[in-house]
Each structure stands twice: as C-alpha cells, then as structure tokens.
Amino acid sequence: MISSSKELERDRSLLSKFEVLADLEKTVAELIQKHEEKRELWFPSDFLPADETTNEDLHLRQIRERAKGIPLSARVALALNLITEEGLPHFHRLIAVHLGSDSFWKNWNNLWTAEEDRHGNVIRDYCRDSHVMNFTAVERAQFQYVRSGFNPDWDKDPYRVFVYTSAQERATQISHDGTGRVCGTYEPTLEKILHSIAMDEARHYAFYKAVFSEVLKRDPDNALESAITILPSIDMPGHTLRNFNEYADVVRRSGIYGPRDYITVVEALIKAWGLETLTGLKESGKKAQEKILAIPGRLKKVAEYIESRHASKTFQLEFVFNKVFTMA
C-alpha cells in the first residue's frame, strides 16, 4: 500500500512536470527563432572541400603534413571528441523519450540533431584525411559505444534533461575549444573546425539553460530536486568506453578538460539560474538548494585530492597506434 502511494505521488509529480513543459510552447518557439537568427550554419565541406574541383592529392598532402605535429595527447582528445559526437543517436532518443516525440519539443530535437550531426561528420572527415589516429580502432570503439547504450537513471524526469544538457553542452564546448587550442599551433584548419563546433555547443547551452530558467520560474522546488540529482557529477558521453578513464586522464593532463573545468560549469549554472537568491521555497526545495550551492566546494576538494596524487604517467593507447608517451 505504501509502495502504491509512493508510485501515485511520483506519477502526479511527473504529470505536473509535463504540464509545466507544455506551458513552455510559446517560449520554446521564441528561443528556437532566436537561436536560428544568431546561428551561422556551416557544413563539413566548408572546411574540407570535397567537390569535383578539389585537388585531392594536394589537399591530402597538405593536411597530413600539417597534422604531423599534433601531440599524441591531443589526438587522444580528438578521438574521444569524435566518438562522443557520433553517439548522437543516444541523445536524440533520450530527448524524444523524456520530452515526447509527438509534441512541439520535436521541433527543437530535430533541429538540434541536424546541427549536432555535422560535428561528428566533420571530425570524422578530418581524422580520416589526416591520418592522425588509428582510425580502425576509433571506429570499433564508436561502434561499441553506440551498441552499449546510454541510459542514465533519470526516472523519466523531463526536468533532468535540461539540467544534464545544460551542463553537458557547456562541458563539451570547453573540451572542443581546448582541443582546438592545443592543435591550432600545428593545424589551423582543425582549430577552426573545433572552434565552430564549440560555438554550436555554446548556442545549444544557451537554449537549454534558458529553458531550465523558465522551469525554475514555474516549479522551483521540483526543478531544484531534479537538479541536485544531476549536477554533483554528470556522466560525460563516452564514459562506457573501454579504457575511458585512461583517455580522460590524458585529456585532463593536457589541460583540455578536467575536474576544475566542471567546477566552472556548475558555478556558471548556479549564477545563470540565480540559485543563490531563490526564495519562497518549500522545505524540499530549500534542502536541494543548499546541496547544490555546496557542490563547487565539494568538487574543489575532489580536484585538490586528484592533484595531490599527481605524478608522471606513461600511456600506451590503441587510438594513437600504441605509441608510448609520458605526461606530467
């Protein structure tokens, strides 16, 4: 009987959340219009020409020569970026499942998917042309990643979609920009590609962040309870990959993306959503608010612990032809 009461309460909560999201239809339409007005639509062929006028031999010679200088660590980061971008089917499905594939939300999901689809395409084209990594190994890992699925324990909570995507889009932006920064010294074309992807992620971040701001205005207590289940530590795309922790360690040591970057993500969201100044909350909302505001402090302790145990490490990873390299 107790279990049935809890299930009924949960069902009512979910119903109220979907009612809140239904109330956002006009707002979402305006956000989509604003997004498209600011967006510069680009395509992979803008960076890597592939029509009949292209001198393919010259293109390949030049791009491979420039790519020779890219450090092995940056190549690992690039491989990880490629694999996670090509995990797009997981995220289209999650948004469709949690927000509904037959509602107005499908307009955003389809647009977002079309824009995101170019990211994996252009990185893949560059990596194949430049020979910067063991492409067969990367393809096998990408296949395994998509096949293994991505099923976060969100309990069909649609609010969590916007918390996760806000944090994840910002984190991905940092990762692409960081990889481009390291590679740009040797390969300006790749830097331009990754910067363009990062700017897309920034605009997607702005959309999701704005939606959750609207949710907070309408249903702050439930919104905060959803946020506290996501923000302490998000599962980055690709975390199911074999040897993911090794790849992530390389990326962290490269200065591209690590725990301290995630701290900046959480701090930015707390500020953007005005979580410190929210008032009029119920007890459950107050508790969630308190826990969220404590997250940056806890994350800093984690970062300090990792840094205190820092020592040089040698890597040998299949993505970069099992070449041995050492990082401080």
What share of residues is helical? Answer: over 70%
Coarse structural class: mainly alpha
Helix segment tally: 14
- The third-level CATH topology is Ribonucleotide Reductase, subunit A
Can you tell me the number of structural domains? 1
Taking the sheet with the most strands, its summary is: 2 strands, antiparallel
**Taking Cα atoms only, what radius of gyration do you get, to the nearest Å?**
21 Å
Low-confidence stretches: none
CATH superfamily: Ribonucleotide Reductase, subunit A
CATH architecture: Orthogonal Bundle
What pattern of helices and strands is seen along the backbone? HHHHHHHHHHHHHHEE
Instruction: Give average pLDDT, whole number.
Output: 93
Beta-strand percentage? under 5%
- Distance N to C terminus: 58 Å
Adjacency order of strands in the biggest sheet: 1-2
> What is the 3D form?
globular
DSSP, total strands: 2
The CATH class label is Mainly Alpha
Structure description:
- 36% of the residues are buried.
- The model has no long low-confidence stretch (mean pLDDT 93).
- This protein has helices spanning 2-22, 25-38, 44-47, 56-67, 72-85, 88-99, 105-130, 135-148, 158-184, 188-218, 220-230, 244-253, 259-272, 283-308; strands at 313-316, 324-327.
- Helix 5 (72-85) packs antiparallel against helix 7.
- Strand 1 (313-316) and strand 2 form a beta hairpin.
- By secondary structure, the protein is mainly α.
- The chain has a two-stranded antiparallel sheet.
- The longest helix has 31 residues, at 188-218.
